[in-house]
Amino acid sequence: MSYDLNFWSEPKGFESDPLEIYRALSDGSPFDGLYQINVAGFYKRIIEAFPGTKESNGFLDWEGEENSFQVSSSSQHVRVDCYGEPGEWMNVFIDIGKEFSCPLYDPQTDMRFTG
User: Fold this and answer.
1) In CATH, what number is assigned to the domain containing residue 63?
2) For residue 76, what are the CA distances in angstroms to 44, 46, 93, 107, 113?
3) CA dist., res. 88 & res. 92, Å (int)
4) What is this structure's pTM?
5) 115 pLDDT exceeds 70?
6) Which helix (H) or strand (E) holds 79?
């Protein structure tokens, strides 16, 4: 099973549809009005939280006993593709996103968690 988690930072009161933002960012297109984010810092925190994470060509890869993930990004977003069983281990990414003022967008439910 795969599950993707997406993180970006936007101004307070930003009115664009999160699904439109997600689609643009997933297609590699910048989205007007989003902030640039500290991708290097975000990656560093993921590497700290998941020992054994490997970085190559702008991606992060990690494999555990039952789960794995791959992280990709642009200057405006970080996307985490999780494989295995959803669970508490995925909340680590949500907490890291909060550290960088990048709340979660969950495309599986079409929900943006801003609070």
Assistant:
1) 3.30.310.250
2) 16, 17, 16, 17, 17
3) 8
4) 0.94
5) no
6) strand 77-83
